[in-house]
Amino acid sequence: MGVNLKKVAKAAKEYRHILIVMRHAKAESLGKSSDRDRNLTDKGLKQAKTVAKGLAELKLVPDRIACSGAARALQTCERMLKTFGDHPTVDYRQSLYDNGVQAVFDEIAQTKGKHRVLMVLGHEPTVSISCQWLASADSDPSLLDLLNLGLSTAGVVIFGSDEPFEHWQIRTGHLLAVLTPKDFD
């Protein structure tokens, strides 16, 4: 079952504020280095590039990116910035690695109204749990079911709301899409 990206783009245009929550791209297995220091694989680099191009085609290039300080998240963000260019402001936050769901909500709350598209780039299970809390009650149940499964590497969740980010609480975002890199191919 494919996702109609044109419908996602059209739906996103209807909202003043768009939140994109993303899991980092595919990383190497835990080896001698610490979990925090794991790097992206070649597949992960391709995933990050594919998602960035897809978001750009949807006209959803972030104004601000809040990115985990773990190596695999940093590398995902760096790869995406090659497509996004200098437009997004990027804030690297160790809290998105260390502090769970609260860190995601803190980043949303700290985002000023001038930003229309915010991306939070982090880790599982934090990103999918945060999305479950953010999704409004009128969100599509089949999309909510996908969140229960967790996000795949480089998975993306898109929310829309007319509320400025600094006013977002639980159940604020209308869940527009749950996407994998394959959806952008």
Could you describe the 3D structure shown?
The radius of gyration is 15 Å and the shape is globular. It has 185 residues and is an alpha/beta fold. The chain contains seven helices and six strands; from the N terminus they run H-E-H-E-H-E-H-H-E-H-H-E-E. The protein has helices at 5-13, 42-57, 71-84, 95-98, 100-109, 126-134, 141-148; strands at 17-23, 64-68, 89-93, 117-122, 156-161, 174-179. Strands 3-2-4-1-5-6 form a six-stranded mixed β-sheet, with helices on both faces. Helix 3 (71-84) links the parallel strand 2 and strand 3. Helices cover 38% and strands 19% of the residues. Helix 2 (42-57) packs across helix 3 and helix 5 (100-109) crosses helix 6.
Strand adjacency order, main sheet? 3-2-4-1-5-6
- Round the mean pLDDT to the nearest integer and report it: 95
Largest sheet: 6 strands, mixed
| Large-scale geometry | globular
- Order of SSEs, N→C? HEHEHEHHEHHEE
- What is the SS-derived class? alpha/beta
